[in-house]
Amino acid sequence: MDTAVLAQSGLTAPILLPLIGALLAFVMRRRATPIGLLSVLALLGAVILQVPSLFADGPQRLAVGGWGAPLGVDLYADGLSIAMLLMTAVVGLGISLYAAAYFRDTPARGQAFWPLWLLLLTALNALFLSADIFNLYVTLEILGLSAVALTAIVGGADALVGAMRYLLVSLLGSLAYLLGVALLYHAYGTVDIALLAERIAAEPATWAAMGLMSAGLILKTALFPLHFWLPPAHASAAAPVSAALSALVVKGSFYLLVRFWVELFGEIAGGVATLLGLLGAAAVLWGSIQALVQTRLKLLIAYSTVAQIGYLFLAFPLAVGTGIMAWTGVLYLALSHALAKAAMFLVAGNLLRFGGHDRIADLDRVVQRLPLSMAAFALAGVSIVGLPPSGGFIGKWLLLQSALTEGRWGWAIVIILGGVMAAAYVFKVVGHAFTESENPHQAQPVPATMEWVAFALAAAAVLMGLIVSQPLALLEIGNPFGIRTEVATP
Fold it and tell me: In the Cβ-directed half-sphere of 15, how many Cα atoms lie within 13 Å?
């Protein structure tokens, strides 16, 4: 069997491995933790095995069960898909190791966490590999429901209110997306993305579908001003869940927006790119201002996510002129943000465990007691701010270069101003970590695993700035930002 066929067959592994793990963790609840850890390790191995064959044979398409489009389920993997799978597997492994220690004292919550977490990974991986818009709807539903359930797992009024709000938003977004799918199927008789790309035309049905699907996905991505659900949901969840929501879940719907924009709607969208860019710029400024005024660390990090999501949407107007540079920059930013933001939320979990609160003003010289955690926060902050040599710097530099190349000074000012404000809220936290609080508190021990995992993810976000050529080469496989080349079928 040649490597291309093996690679195509292996496309199902990132979906099946966490799905099987979820079922086993649900049935054998007392062994949920080792099952979960083994599943995520196997997932990382399966994704890594895809990389050499992708470089050797190019993008892969697999007709599951031998049924191809338009009736069957097709999986498709190019450089962009595999990069997103790698991000999910690496961050997922870190969150899993952290969760194993985090839920050690609350085994009931741990037993509830693992099946839902593995189901969320299943949905995310299926989303990154699916090649038709209806299957993508199914993955969005599973992703949203598992994320809502995970948000509520910690219990308490805040978590339940945040989860309910998240559920309503998720369902509303899914409904809008599904209406768009129905319109496209009625107009063109297929839900396969490649076939739709050949048939789609600038007509009212297409514009209506674009508006509905984009609105639904923007709602799920929490772009300003539809971000209202994100801070309470992310801030009230358990630390590993907050990390997963902010690092991974919002990237799923953004990934679909990019895919649809490049392959279906970009050429007929008119001035929508500028509108998305303006909303992104507003998110950068509004999210950063809100982060600056927060008094709780988890809320500060959540509003930082609102701001960083805004950066991702600056690529839409910038890509009109500079194409791949803007897309590459924003996806590099998304990958490094996943690592850095997961690290920040895990550090917040460590500080909550240590002091019993996340009040920024009462961190009370925590840098002397949890130096590894604060080092992780500072390293993650380097990437969030966009300082060299981090991955965040590479992403923001490519975006800034796109803006300057086109002479679009407004976007350039937003990129720089957002970085300055990010530095202000990161230093605000670091400053309080060095000072004595007026309200000293009893400290509780934090497991070393929880500290080291946060540090490793933060260090990875910085290291991404030192290994630029390999991720960029991966992102270009299959030309995901232009016209797709013909791919092999089994």
Answer: 17
